[in-house]
Amino acid sequence: MAEELEKINAEVIAVYPNKIRISVDKLEDFQLAEEKLKVGSYLRVSDNDNAVMIAMIETFLIEVGVDKNGQPTKRYIIEANPLGMLCDGHFERGGDTISIPPKKVEPAKLEEIQKIYEESVDDKEKFTFATLAANEDISVPVDGNRFFNKHIAVIGSTGSGKSHTVAKIVQEAILLKEGAYDGMNNSHIIIFDIHSEYKTAFPNANYLDINNLVLPYWLLNSDELQELFIDTDANDHNQRNVFKEAVVENRKANFTGTAAEKEKIHFDSKLFFDIDAVLKVARDKNEEQIDTGEVYASGAKKGQPKLTQGSLFGRLTNFVNRLENKIGDKRLEFLLGDKSKKISFEDTLKQFISYGDKKSNVTIIDLSGIPFEVLSITVSLISRILFEYGYYYKRYRSAKDPDEKVNNDAPLLLVYEEAHKYVPNSDLSKYRASRESIERIAKEGRKYGVSLLLASQRPSEISETIFSQCSNFIAMRLTNPNDQSYVRKLLPDTLGALVDKLPSLKAGECLLIGDAVVLPSVALVARCEPAPSSNDIPYFKLWKEEWKDLPFDKIIEEWRK
């Protein structure tokens, strides 16, 4: 018995609710040839009943002491997180059927880990965009349905490979086909591109920027209309009342339906109104003079009717100026120009999901040229249109076939790049519109076939309501302590310590965690091809080159567009 104990190289010395401690005499003897042990490597822990627990290494410790002869000794302590049970060659997350104390500990074999990943997802559901960081020969598939129909978060500091990861996921999604049909598959992905970097990664995408995007202002809801056209800080009820009344009356004037339908038109009705006509009403009210019914008896105005100022005379000057400035701003042509008055509701929707002149699996909405003061409204309106598409499509399909279980056969994935820019964890009014729209999608979108992929370098600044709805996380290198703490709160208690590895991840490496992956994994996302234009500018190289003459006239010309 004593001889047997001496031969034991590794043994479990403590079992906690969320981790186990293992003592290793000689670490070099404990390692397998195929894989050097590191944080994120897998162990197999078994008992006499042949139940096998798979655990992930969390930390290494060295304990130094002395033996009975006073000679210095050291032993290695490994702390590992239990992940699940391997029973009859099949892996299941969780489980506590292993007896205490477990008798045997050894590194998980390459073929064993490979089998777990390969058999974890049915071939028809398998979606792969990464490999194990410790061994690139092992692919890390996710369940495609669980991955895409539950919201996804991709987080990582600048330079961590976040944009490449997003592009890789989308590129793989649009390539998959079930069967040998020709043409595109049925994927529909809309990318909100705030830095104009995804066009190179998707050369065949339906590309919308400030030059060809048409967004009709008359589809804005009441809150967005008032945010755009009314000085909310002034808290002027006259402005609000005149604006609301003019909008409703003009909607009715342009409506061609029945009288009964016309009576139901309200401020939030999705019907056309002419913003120029609203401006004319505001001008008329601001300059209104009322005939008293009397005439001047003498003087230069003898015989002319006497006039008195209207109740709003001169009180709407700021409102009129604001309307004039908005309508005349060339930067807002995409929202308030002639095309926005003429485009139909149907064509507005078609351009966003690429059912117009150019059909494509990917629509890129380049937000880089959108003025910051209307960025939130722009994102809000597009997001709401896409959410309501899913809602009303479900209603249509349910009415057509009450037994229909798949309520949207053309589901959407909305990709919000740098999401903290327009859905921040902030109560400021300038973010309210986009935050409310995207929070609604986060909470309800999955029921209507509209899911989210949030990409951000500052997860701690994103609305908690939105982020907490994500079920799958791709956490890349994060160096900010606040962001690390935020991510740690979102992970299960048993995996919180893995966040400590985030600052040391290489470019392209990530923690892949969520409902769609069988094991929490330290994975490597392959570089995408073609790549987004998110490469860093080589300052030092460029600074060493000869002085360059800049085309200032062309820069200013572009600036003024």
Give a brief outline of the structure.
By secondary structure, the chain is an alpha/beta fold. The protein has 19 helices and 20 strands. 32% of the residues lie in helices and 22% in strands.
Would you kindly provide a written description of the structure presented here, covering whatever features stand out?
The structure is a single chain. By secondary structure, the chain is of the alpha/beta class. It is 32% helix and 22% strand. The chain is built from 19 helices and 20 strands. The chain has helices at residues 2-7, 27-30, 110-120, 144-148, 162-175, 222-229, 237-254, 259-263, 275-287, 317-328, 333-336, 338-342, 345-352, 375-400, 432-444, 464-467, 481-490, 539-543, 552-560; strands at residues 10-15, 20-24, 42-46, 52-66, 72-87, 90-93, 104-107, 126-132, 139-143, 152-155, 188-193, 206-208, 289-295, 305-309, 362-366, 412-417, 450-456, 472-475, 509-514, 521-525. The strands form 3 sheets. Strands 9-8-20-19-18-10-17-16-11-15-12 form an 11-stranded mixed sheet. Strands 1, 2, 3, 4, 5, 6 and 7 form a 7-stranded antiparallel sheet that branches. The protein has a two-stranded antiparallel sheet with strand order 13-14. Helix 14 runs parallel beside helix 15 (432-444). Residues 1-7 have low confidence and may be disordered.
Features:
561 residues; alpha/beta; elongated; disordered N terminus
Helix content bin = 25-40%
Strand order within the widest beta sheet:
9-8-20-19-18-10-17-16-11-15-12
Distance between the termini: 86 Å
Integer average pLDDT: 86
> Using only CA atoms, what is the Rg?
31 Å
As a percent range, the share of strand residues is 15-25%
**Count of runs of 4 or more consecutive helical residues:** 19
Largest β sheet strand count, sense and barrel closure: 11 strands, mixed
Q: Structural class of the secondary structure composition?
A: alpha/beta
Shape: elongated
Low-confidence stretches: 1-7
Strand tally is 20
